[in-house]
């Protein structure tokens, strides 16, 4: 399988984003988020969406010239208005400010309103790792999930991520949407004419279904773990939507649907915790390593040869990507080929 160097992929992204109106700094920020996500193997949120973001810019739903603005702040908190900028630009601004405040007071929390889709929540949580901090990131989305007992989509599958530093072991890092599965898996099954497992979607009556033929026009996604996933999605809605002053539930517009000029009104929240304020950072990392190794050495189930920690797979994929390049799936390669053609770049140059 052909592999693409992260540097060449970043260069293509930056060029395309500058063509769409972003300045060099913001284009670099967005490219870094998307390419890092691909290096983790999370292709559903990486460069595959770049063409969609550019289409949204051209439709007027994203302002490529906007700069997120701090509108309220205290010692350990801040509120940012994204002004419909690229979600990655607002997201990085939000987490950078949370980290800055955590350095002073041990804890920093920021909320962002009037933003856009920001890609993988895990990227922002991991920004804290570089400062020996624990990071938490979350975002609300347009409604695509039912509440238990409901029939129509009323809340988003709001992503939630955290990352915690370790010593010799990989940082622990989890990035999940709060639906029972990713929408990409449902679309893939639908495209092949396959059914989906019960517990993923509902039918028009709000009951569990396996036939995805008419989804998402009819039916909705189900929360992971039933009421537990629904409760966590509601927590994200409170912190990222209600508290930020951004759109809430049905007020949030879809960014992948009809290309309208209206911004999505998405909200995010970021938290950074300076663990060095609680104990010496060396002690914290040693304790993390001990916990990780204890879990990994625990008795394994029949047929299992390894116990994974959250994020371990992504870190190992990133290591391979840095050494050998990124092996992108066909759907991403096709999207990048179209993008290259649209911005006057030779797609084959990515492989040289």
Spatial strand sequence of the major β-sheet: 1-2-3-9-4-5-6
First-residue to last-residue Cα separation: 14 Å
Helical content class: 25-40%
Going by CATH, the architecture of the largest domain would be: 2-Layer Sandwich
- Total of domains: 3
User: How large is the share of residues in beta strands?
Assistant: 5-15%
Q: Please write the string of helix (H) and strand (E) elements.
A: HHHEEHEHEEEHEEHEHHH
Name the descriptors:
352 residues; Wheat Germ Agglutinin (Isolectin 2), domain 1; Hypothetical Oxidoreductase Yiak, Chain: A, domain 1; globular; alpha+beta; Ribosomal Protein S8, Chain: A, domain 1
Account of the protein in words:
- By secondary structure, the protein is α+β, with helices and mostly antiparallel strands.
- The protein folds into 3 domains: 99 residues, Malate/L-lactate/L-sulpholactate dehydrogenase, four-helix barrel (Hypothetical Oxidoreductase Yiak, Chain: A, domain 1); 169 residues, 2-Layer Sandwich (Ribosomal Protein S8, Chain: A, domain 1); 43 residues, Hypothetical oxidoreductase yiak, domain 3 (Wheat Germ Agglutinin (Isolectin 2), domain 1, 2-Layer Sandwich).
- The chain has 10 helices and 9 strands.
- A 7-stranded mixed beta sheet has the order 1-2-3-9-4-5-6. Strands 7-8 form a two-stranded antiparallel sheet.
- Helix 1 crosses helix 2 and helix 2 crosses helix 4.
- It starts with 5 loop residues before the first helix and ends in a 10-residue tail after the last helix.
């Amino acid at each position: 399988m052909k592999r693409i160097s992260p540097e060449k992929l970043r260069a293509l992204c930056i060029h395309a984003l500058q063509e769409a109106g972003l300045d060099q700094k913001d284009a670099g920020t967005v490219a870094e988020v998307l390419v890092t996500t691909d290096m983790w193997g999370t292709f559903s949120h990486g460069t595959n969406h770049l063409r969609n973001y550019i289409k949204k810019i051209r439709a007027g739903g994203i302002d490529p010239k906007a700069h997120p603005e701090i509108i309220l702040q205290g010692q350990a908190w801040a509120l940012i208005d994204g002004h419909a900028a690229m979600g990655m630009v607002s997201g990085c601004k939000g987490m950078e400010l949370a980290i800055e405040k955590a350095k002073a007071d041990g804890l920093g929390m920021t909320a962002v309103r009037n933003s856009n889709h920001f890609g993988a929540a895990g990227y922002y949580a991991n920004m804290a790792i570089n400062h020996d901090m624990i990071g938490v990131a979350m975002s609300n989305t347009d409604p695509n999930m039912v509440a238990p007992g409901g029939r129509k989509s009323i809340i988003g599958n709001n992503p939630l991520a955290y990352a915690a530093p370790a010593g010799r072991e990989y940082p622990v890092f989890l990035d999940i949407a709060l639906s029972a599965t990713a929408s990409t898996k449902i679309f893939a099954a639908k495209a092949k004419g396959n059914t989906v497992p019960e517990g993923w979607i509902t039918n028009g009556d709000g009951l569990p279904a396996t036939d995805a033929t008419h989804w998402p026009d009819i039916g909705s996604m189900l929360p992971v773990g039933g009421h537990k996933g629904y409760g966590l999605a509601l927590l994200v809605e409170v912190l990222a939507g209600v508290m930020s002053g951004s759109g809430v539930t049905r007020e949030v517009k879809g960014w992948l649907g009809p290309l309208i000029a209206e911004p999505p009104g998405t909200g995010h929240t970021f938290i950074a915790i300076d663990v060095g304020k609680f104990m010496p950072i060396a002690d914290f990392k040693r304790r993390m390593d001990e916990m990780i190794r204890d879990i990994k050495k625990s008795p394994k189930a029949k047929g299992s040869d390894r116990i994974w920690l959250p994020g371990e797979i992504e870190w190992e994929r990133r290591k391979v990507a840095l050494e050998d390049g990124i092996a992108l799936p066909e759907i991403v390669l096709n999207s990048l080929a179209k993008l290259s053609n649209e911005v006057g770049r030779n797609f084959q140059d990515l492989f040289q």
